[in-house]
């Protein structure tokens, strides 16, 4: 029977801790507005989030994972020590921002940890600028696109509900209850 090396066990443990913290950290950021505004119950918000996370790769593909896995740093620069350093730094950053109540992305923390660890381990030359460019563009454009789509969607809903009576709220409440019951049963 093959025995795993201690350093591999450390990497696996750090990976599990990072994944657990990623779920706690990022999921709370996703559902906070829905719950705080009382638009959805906590159960419904988490149910919608779970379903969306499950179906997203099937609808949108795995381009983000491909970019992070293949286009941020040169593959030959990634060693087990680099992965341990990247995971440890991302875990520390997630815990720090969580403790201070600062919204932060676990994915970006992992990318930053990877870039920092690879830079120390192999130098700046192994950083893939094309992949970094994609990440930075997405980082700056996604809030703007989200704002515009949210605005557009709100305008469409208000347009469709123009002149409606207060009984329209019954429709939205029924739709909300149906979606909650269907998604969590």
Can you walk through the features of this model?
The protein is 78% helix and 0% strand. It is an all-alpha fold and 185 residues long. The protein has seven helices and no strands. The N and C termini lie far apart (43 Å). It has one domain. The model has no long low-confidence stretch (mean pLDDT 86). It is elongated.
Topology:
Elements (H helix, E strand, L loop, with lengths): L5 H31 L5 H19 L2 H8 L9 H21 L5 H17 L6 H32 L7 H17 L1
Structural class: mainly alpha
* Count of individual beta strands: 0
Overall mean pLDDT stands at 86
Order of helices and strands: HHHHHHH
Largest sheet: none
Principal-axis shape? elongated
Alpha-carbon distance between the two ends: 43 Å
Uncertain parts: none
Fraction of residues in H or I helices:
over 70%
Enumerate how many helices there are, as a single number. Answer: 7
**Beta-strand residue fraction:** under 5%
State Rg. Answer: 21 Å
Please, how many domains?
1
Describe the structure concisely:
Helix content is 78%, strand content 0%.
Key traits:
mainly alpha; 185 residues; elongated; 78% helix
């Amino acid at each position: 029977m093959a025995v795993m090396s201690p350093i591999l066990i450390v990497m696996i443990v750090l990976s599990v801790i990072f994944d657990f913290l990623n779920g706690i950290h990022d999921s709370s950021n996703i559902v906070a507005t829905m719950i705080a505004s009382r638009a959805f119950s906590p159960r419904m918000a988490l149910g919608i989030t779970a379903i969306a996370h499950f179906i997203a790769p099937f609808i949108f593909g795995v381009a983000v994972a491909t970019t992070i896995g293949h286009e941020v740093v040169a593959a030959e620069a990634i060693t087990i020590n680099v992965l341990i350093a990247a995971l440890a730094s991302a875990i520390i950053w997630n815990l720090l921002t969580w403790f201070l109540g600062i919204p932060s992305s676990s994915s970006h923390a992992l990318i930053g940890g990877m870039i920092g660890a690879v830079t120390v381990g192999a130098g700046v030359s192994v950083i893939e600028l094309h992949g970094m460019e994609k990440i930075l563009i997405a980082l700056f454009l996604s809030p703007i696109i989200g704002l515009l789509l949210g605005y557009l969607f709100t305008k469409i809903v208000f347009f469709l509900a123009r002149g409606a009576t207060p009984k329209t709220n019954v429709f939205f409440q029924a739709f909300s209850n149906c979606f909650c019951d269907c998604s969590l049963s």
